[in-house]
Each structure stands twice: as structure tokens, then as C-alpha cells.
Amino acid sequence: MGFKSRARKRRGDAGDAKGTSEDGESEEYEGQIRCDIIECDNWADKKIGGRKMAYDRAVEVWGASGISHKVRRVSLCKPCYRTWKKEKKDEPNEWGSKATGSSGNAPSAKPIRSFDQP
């Protein structure tokens, strides 16, 4: 049995375990963690693309009244995370390197190679 036939066999087994019904429709994922943004009713589980973010970062976009409760880390669904990412796209990165060289903090001088030496 080659690797392709084993993969086909396992793909069929995984489909049964995934929760697909016999007529080919997949079941809706029922999450466990809700998105902490007040206007949002989506799930924020990591399995479906949810993220956790510091409370202060979320307040910058939605404000303190836009978050359901004050916790250290706010749970966000994928659409809310994308909204936050678009809002913060033009702001400078707080951890970005300050060096102008192409390789981070290294000086921009050319490296000396051993075969260039006389």
C-alpha cells in the first residue's frame, strides 16, 4: 500500500470523525468562548480563528464601553481581530527595530569576506 492510498483511506476516516452527516453537510461548530466585543455574537475559540489580546490594545479600537467585561486578555473572534488589525495598520509598531540597516540592529557596512582579502 503506497502513501497515496493510505492518505485516501485516512481522509475517509477523518471525515467520519469530523462530524459530517451522511448527506454530505457539515455540522455548525458550537464554540465555548464568546467574543468579548459587545456588538459581536461570534465564537472566539482558537479552533475557528479566535485570538486573545491585551485589554489595553482592544480599548484603543473599541473603547472601554465596547468590551463586555474587563479582563487581562480579551477574546476576539476572527472578524473582530481583522477589524482591529485594519485599524492599527498605519500606526508604528511598538516593537519594531529602530535601526535603518536591512538586517535589524547590525551596522550597514559591507561584511568582509575572506576571499576578498589580498
What can you tell me about this protein's structure?
It is a single chain. It is built from three helices and two strands. Strands 1-2 form a two-stranded antiparallel sheet. The model has no long low-confidence stretch (mean pLDDT 79). Helix content is 29%, strand content 7%. The chain is mainly alpha-helical and 118 residues long. It has helices spanning 3-18, 55-62, 78-87; strands at 51-54, 73-76.
Furnish the topology, listing elements before pairings:
Layout: H1 3-18, E1 51-54, H2 55-62, E2 73-76, H3 78-87
Antiparallel strand pairs: 1-2
Provide a quick synopsis of the model.
With 118 residues, the chain is mainly alpha-helical. The chain has helices at residues 3-18, 55-62, 78-87; strands at residues 51-54, 73-76.
